[in-house]
Amino acid sequence: MSNKPLFLVVDDDPVSRLMLCRSLEKSGYETIAEENGAKALAAFDRRRPDVVLLDAKMPVMDGFEACRAIKQCPGGDNVPVLMITGLNDEESVDKAYEAGAADFITKPIHWAILRNRVQYLIKVLEAERQLYLAAGVIESTDEGIVVTDSDSIIQSVNPAFARITGYSAAEAVGRSMNLLKSGHHDREFYRNMWECLRNFGNWKGEIWNRRKNGEIYPQWANINAIKSPTGQVSNFVVVFTDLTAAKESEESLLYITGHDALTDLPNRLLFYDRLGHALNDARRDEKGVAVLLLDLDRFKVINDTIGHDVGDRLLVKVSEKLNAAMPEKDMLFRMGGDEFGVILGGLDDSRQAVQVAQGILEVLARPFTLDDMDLFIGGSIGIGLFPGDGPDVKTLVKNTDAAMYHAKEQGRNNFQFYRNELNTTSLARMMLEGSLRNALEREEFLLFYQPQIDLKSGRMVGMEALMRWRHPERGMISPGEFIPLAEESGLIIPMGRWALLTACRQNRAWQEAGFPPLRMAVNLSGLQFNAPDFTDQVFKVLGETGLDPATLELELTESIAMGDVEETLAKLHTLDQVNMHLAIDDFGTGFSSLSYLKRFPIDTLKIDQSFVRNCTSDPEDAAIIRAFISLAHSLGLRVIAEGVETAEQLQFLQQEDCDEVQGYYFSRPLPADRFAEYMVEHFQRHPSG
Ligand code: C2E
Ligand code: CA
Ligand code: CA
């Protein structure tokens, strides 16, 4: 109550009237005094007191009657009446309550009791007023308010709730809050919200709900758990504001600040914002991003000679044409002046950037006609690629800018990658990386086979399976180009599994077709070997193909010694136990010595072709091969020399007691059908004997 509470004191006894008034005034209240019920009624009507003190026994109109009459007055119902009755007058007490009195006190008045009763009355009154006020606020506020019970069943809602959600109070009350669920948030979101409510009794945040008409909208909600005096949550109060309008104006604000007024293109500000998002997406999806920065070559000259007015119109035209040349909307930005930017996100292949750059240059190569003038503009473009040219927005843009200046130096009207070599070689690499991901499911890989010949008998004893990639555009690609990429990206694991399965299946098929059982050598990447389930994978393939493990050879690299030696040993023993052949590939090129080989159950050493290549011309290489062979034999290992191309090399290896050879001298790696023909012919010349 903002003003002092006003008391209407009615008593026919002037002394007690005076005493009552003084006592109340001392407590800080205002008073009006009347001597009977009738006068009291008139005063009540005139002054609207907050509390009425009524003596029960009065002439003209007694207290009870006056009380009833006051209660009948407009607003009278809300004004508490305190009845003053005689001591122990039970009948009067009953009558007082019946008449609508809020409380009573007895005569003679005990002043301390009166003070307390009055104080209490005033408190209740204030609380009621506040409640009334609150109800008014709740009714009139723009914020939606819902009160639920502890099980989220809606108990009451305000008119704003109905306006925002479309559900009337009658429709909402008794239903669960799930009524408003939009499906926009996942379980995690609600779990967090409930945890917050449980722990802190409050949750605030943006939440998307669904209106009765199905529309999903954002709202800012503030939820409070209301506890009962015993400490349990009895209710939740949800206060929420509809954010739809706010979002819209936020968006339009972003649009205004993010767009260039002249060309209506998104501006530099938005460029940086979008680029940041594009880089984040690319990190998540393991994709690339290309940034193109374009500077018009002759715009400044035109602008200075024919005037800014024409210059502005020219810029608008150029923007429109460039925008139309973009493969997608919202890719082109005006960076300021005659500079433009392009963001290409989710990039698989840097050729996409080249295409866009070419498209831009084509647009700019044609004249722009303004006021019957043909204006040739031209442009220089720098291309930067994420992640290679910069791990963040700032570096990437800086480097792309450098590339743009490089393009200008190159005589304009061209584009340049930031990395010079990208203009040639690693461009190809980047392109490959993109298409490698899809190659397996598109079944673009195949295996070629190369024979391995026993030097003593001259008979084929095995073959090596070598992977090839038939690229839809680039044709056959050799593993030297794609295996390193596959290893970097981890794709080698599924690719290697495929190679093992295919080689085993092929070997089994040839054996079933009646060819003599030969060893099939399959290359393994260290990554594959180190996978914990590697041996399981191998046995699975053997089971699937039914191939005799004794006709399978795994070519391992020296790098397997790098890993956990005990684990490596265990794996090798597991494979050795089923008589599988184990070979060390490219022997001599790695870091390791023969010493660890003593511990490993290895059968074969493959001498790397780099030694074989020069064995007839370089005495040092010849000596190395000699040493390898004798060492291997002393360990009981078989030796294969690979890369044998000439009769001289073959002769040298024969002299040195090499066991087997492989190389172009006998055959290049061949596709399966050609290899079968080779075998038919070979075994005709070398019948078993
Ligand atoms: P590598 O295991 O050393 O395979 C021998 C390479 O030498 C093959 O190259 C083969 O075509 C080539 N070669 C054979 N005879 C001669 C010759 O007389 N002269 C010359 N100059 N080269 C000869 P390719 O097929 O290009 O394979 C290259 C490498 O790619 C392989 O080297 C191997 O490390 C890897 N690779 C191939 N297939 C697979 C596979 O399925 N899995 C894994 N992890 N790596 C593979
Ligand atoms: Ca090999
Ligand atoms: Ca090799």
Structural notes for this entry:
It is a single chain. Helices cover 45% and strands 24% of the residues. It is α/β, with parallel strands linked by helices and 689 residues long. It folds into four domains: 6-139, Rossmann fold (3-Layer(aba) Sandwich), CATH 3.40.50; 141-242, PAS domain (Beta-Lactamase, 2-Layer Sandwich), CATH 3.30.450.20; 263-423, Reverse transcriptase/Diguanylate cyclase domain (Alpha-Beta Plaits); 427-685, TIM Barrel (Alpha-Beta Barrel). The radius of gyration is 46 Å and the shape is elongated. The mean pLDDT is 87. The protein binds ligand C2E and calcium ion (2 copies). Ligand C2E is lined by residues 450, 466-467, 478-480, 483, 496, 499, 523-525, 585-586, 609, 642-645, 663-664, 669.
Quick recap of the structure?
The chain is α/β, with parallel strands linked by helices. Helices cover 45% and strands 24% of the residues.
Distance between the termini: 120 Å
What class would the helix/strand composition place it in?
alpha/beta
How many helices does DSSP assign?
24
Strand order of the largest sheet: 18-19-21-22-23-24-25-26
Question: According to CATH, what is the topology of the largest domain?
Answer: TIM Barrel
- How many domains? The number is 4
* Rg: 46 Å
What form results from the Cα inertia axes?
Answer: elongated
What ranges have pLDDT less than 50 throughout 5 or more consecutive residues? none
Beta-strand proportion: 15-25%
CATH class of the largest domain: Alpha Beta
